[in-house]
């Protein structure tokens, strides 16, 4: 089955009154020298209301389609006939045009709707919009050829539409017609005219013909009064794009590209009631997927979800980069290139990527790169205003002077790849050009590592210069004005970009500190952290109403060893008293610590254990689920795991003694996430959980029994 092709135009604004545009439009008939394929047209049906406010005319148009001779032969036709129905309402100042094909109407369905209306903000201007759909059911095996021909003809006609109106406006002007009066209701006092008509009461002269015309129309079945779904909803012009705006702010788009943008934007307005991205950003996603509207919509929606999850919209206003970044990250914005694109300079060779990753962690680095990209979007918008033409991407100049094996440090490369991946997914088509200067011998190695992650379209924009080649012909001067070439590249412009240098080891943080930090940045929306002390477990209450629900959990043991339990109780535990916790108050910096099980409760009487205890070692990731048999209160508990004495002698082992001497061993840390799922939804969610931990998870198939399914994996450090 063929796809239905749809088209929706932007709004085209003519800075002329509606009546003058109509006078120009009428001159297209019966034939028009500017449209050679429009061979002839005959009036099939015509209706005029008595007061001449309504004029409906139906024409049969004969088109000589520019198609291969052979195809015409196979189809057995020389001409294609269309029916075009124009409904002019002079009172409302609107013209609606409906057109459909008569030839091959059982094989191909073409519908077009156009309207001329008064501009909502200026009654002396006229707006034009059109939409169309093409559905090819079958065409002697030539469906795709016919589709191509139809699309080609159609888009060339769209372009012509404006020229034709302008051509006839000019013609009218040459004949001295620059003003056409508006329609006015007929005055009932004219005796000579009123006698020739049927008699009507004088006072409601306008009212009666109006309702009469409606009846008259329906009898003749010319004017289809039901509004067609493709008819643009009347709305403020803000929610529509006009052609001049597109040209000025978004660039030269083909009619089909404009249509994709308008349709995707319309869809976003209907589905994403919140903020929708700026037009230029929607366009970037369309460009990244060659204007395939479904593929673009998919990546755009993923990106919108990602932005919401990580609050990216607020990053420029709310996030202050740590001082280490401001001092040692050797990158910054520097004027613009010859095309007016914002220029970002990165002295990668001078930058201690290893030191930055060790001092900040991958997440803070990623967040910094995101803030750079957000700033880039803002600068593009600004430059578009300043330079008077659309600028939607930036240029990046990377200086590799000083690059060495240290830059190939694996975690550093891993961080780089991950950053590239996130940027590729959420800022497509933002890199206009990448100039890589002073590439050393190790560069090819780094390039082979990185290039597979980079989109083909993006890779075409890379220019790589070894040594001092950038100073020669075809070099930097072709892209950047002499006045702004930075001093460190032999130019005369002071460049504010930090010089980088080695990050002092005193600023390095331990893997654990970084992990806590990382967690704070990215998973703040899902995971919660808890501290577990000797004698003070952390407990979470889950109330179950529907007996066969599924409680799922997913936790990481960040520090220490713990025992995980799940209990059931018929009565609600008392909420914990804040003061009783003493030193381990809820607000302790290392995450919360809450006890729910009352000291006087007895296991087996007040509450029962519903899963066997699970010992989890430091560094393990655990996932599991429990199908609840009874309603009531379930308590998940993470408890400090104390070392058992050696079985044979009952004396503690030496390393256990040493371990217990370290004060920190009395504190464990857990990051956890729990969710209750209805049993019918459970199957699907388990598989999704499984796929998200591919390779690690050995979730037992028997999740429906109450036996514990648990899977562990080492946290990759």
TrEMBL record:
Keyword terms: Cytoplasm, Golgi apparatus, Immunity, Innate immunity, Phosphoprotein, Signal transduction inhibitor
GO cellular component annotations of the record: cytosol; Golgi apparatus
Cross-referenced Pfam families: CRAL_TRIO (PF00650), CRAL_TRIO_N (PF03765), PRELI (PF04707)
Annotated CRAL-TRIO domain residues: 321-497
Cytoplasm in keyword set: yes
InterPro entries attached to this UniProt entry: CRAL-TRIO_dom (IPR001251), CRAL-TRIO_dom_sf (IPR036865), CRAL/TRIO_N_dom (IPR011074), CRAL/TRIO_N_dom_sf (IPR036273), GOLD_dom (IPR009038), GOLD_dom_sf (IPR036598), PRELI/MSF1_dom (IPR006797), SEC14/CRAL-TRIO_domain (IPR051064)
Subcellular location: Cytoplasm; Golgi apparatus
Ranges of residues in domain GOLD: 523-676
Protein name (database record): SEC14-like protein 1
Source species: Cariama cristata (Red-legged seriema)
């Amino acid at each position: 089955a063929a796809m239905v092709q749809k088209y929706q135009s932007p709004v085209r604004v003519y800075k002329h009154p509606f009546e003058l545009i109509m006078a120009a439009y009428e001159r297209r008939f019966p034939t028009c020298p500017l449209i050679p394929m429009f061979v002839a047209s005959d009036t099939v049906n015509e209706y005029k209301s008595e007061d001449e406010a309504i004029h409906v005319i139906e024409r049969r148009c004969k088109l000589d389609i520019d198609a291969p001779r052979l195809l015409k032969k196979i189809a057995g036709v020389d001409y294609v006939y269309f029916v075009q129905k124009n409904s002019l309402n002079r009172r409302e100042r609107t013209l609606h045009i409906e057109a459909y094909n008569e030839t091959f109407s059982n094989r191909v369905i073409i519908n077009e709707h156009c309207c001329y209306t008064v501009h909502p903000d200026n009654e002396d201007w006229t707006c034009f919009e059109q939409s169309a759909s093409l559905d090819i059911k079958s065409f002697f095996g030539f469906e795709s050829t016919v589709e191509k021909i139809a699309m080609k003809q159609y888009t060339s006609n769209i372009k012509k539409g404006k020229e034709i109106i302008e051509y006839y406006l000019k013609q009218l002007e040459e004949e001295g017609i620059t003003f056409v009066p508006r329609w006015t209701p007929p005055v009932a006092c004219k005796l000579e005219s009123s006698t020739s008509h049927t008699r009507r009461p004088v006072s409601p002269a306008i009212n009666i013909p109006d309702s009469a015309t409606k009846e008259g129309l329906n009898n003749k079945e010319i004017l289809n009064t039901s509004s067609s779904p493709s008819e643009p909803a009347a709305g403020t012009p803000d929610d529509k794009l006009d052609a001049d705006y597109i040209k000025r702010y978004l660039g030269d788009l083909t009619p089909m590209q404009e249509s994709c943008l308008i349709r995707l934007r319309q869809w976003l307005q209907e589905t994403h009631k919140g903020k929708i991205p700026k037009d230029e950003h929607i366009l970037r996603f369309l460009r990244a997927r060659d204007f395939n509207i479904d593929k673009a919509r998919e990546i755009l929606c993923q990106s919108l979800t990602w932005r919401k999850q990580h609050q990216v919209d607020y990053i420029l206003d709310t996030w202050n980069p740590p001082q280490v970044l401001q001092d040692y990250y050797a990158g910054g914005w520097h004027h613009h290139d010859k095309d007016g694109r914002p220029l970002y300079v990165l002295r990668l060779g001078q930058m201690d990527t290893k030191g930055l990753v060790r001092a900040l962690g991958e997440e803070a680095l990623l967040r910094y790169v995101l803030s750079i990209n957000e700033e880039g979007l803002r600068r593009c918008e600004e430059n578009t205003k300043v330079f008077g033409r659309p600028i939607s991407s930036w240029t990046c100049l990377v200086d590799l002077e000083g690059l060495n094996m240290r830059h190939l440090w694996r975690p550093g490369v891993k961080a780089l790849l991950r950053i590239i991946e996130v940027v590729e997914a959420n800022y497509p088509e933002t890199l206009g050009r990448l100039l890589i200067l002073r590439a050393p011998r190790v560069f090819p190695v780094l390039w082979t590592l990185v290039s597979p992650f980079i989109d083909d379209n993006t890779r075409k924009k890379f220019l790589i210069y070894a040594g001092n080649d950038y100073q020669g012909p075809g070099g930097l001067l072709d892209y950047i004005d002499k006045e702004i070439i930075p001093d460190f590249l032999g130019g005369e412009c002071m460049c504010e970009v930090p010089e980088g240098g080695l990050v002092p080891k005193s600023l390095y943080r331990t893997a654990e500190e970084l992990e806590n930090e990382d967690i704070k940045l990215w998973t703040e929306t899902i995971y919660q952290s808890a501290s577990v002390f000797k004698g003070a477990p952390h407990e979470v209450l889950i109330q179950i109403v529907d007996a066969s629900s599924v409680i799922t959990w997913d936790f990481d043991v960040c520090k220490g060893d713990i025992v995980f339990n799940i209990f059931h109780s018929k009565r609600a535990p008392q909420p914990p008293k804040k003061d009783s916790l003493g030193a381990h108050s809820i607000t302790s910096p290392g995450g919360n610590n809450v006890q729910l099980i009352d000291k006087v409760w007895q296991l087996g009487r007040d509450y029962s254990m519903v899963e066997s205890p699970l010992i989890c070692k430091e560094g393990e990731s655990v996932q599991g689920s429990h199908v609840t048999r009874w309603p009531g209160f379930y308590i998940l508990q993470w408890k400090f795991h104390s070392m058992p004495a050696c079985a044979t002698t009952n004396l503690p082992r030496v390393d256990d003694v040493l371990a217990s001497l370290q004060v920190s061993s009395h504190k464990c840390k857990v990051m956890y996430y729990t969710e209750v799922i209805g049993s019918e939804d459970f199957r699907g969610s388990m598989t999704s959980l499984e796929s998200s931990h591919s390779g690690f998870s050995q979730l037992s198939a028997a999740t429906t029994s109450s036996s514990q399914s648990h899977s562990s994996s080492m946290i990759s450090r």
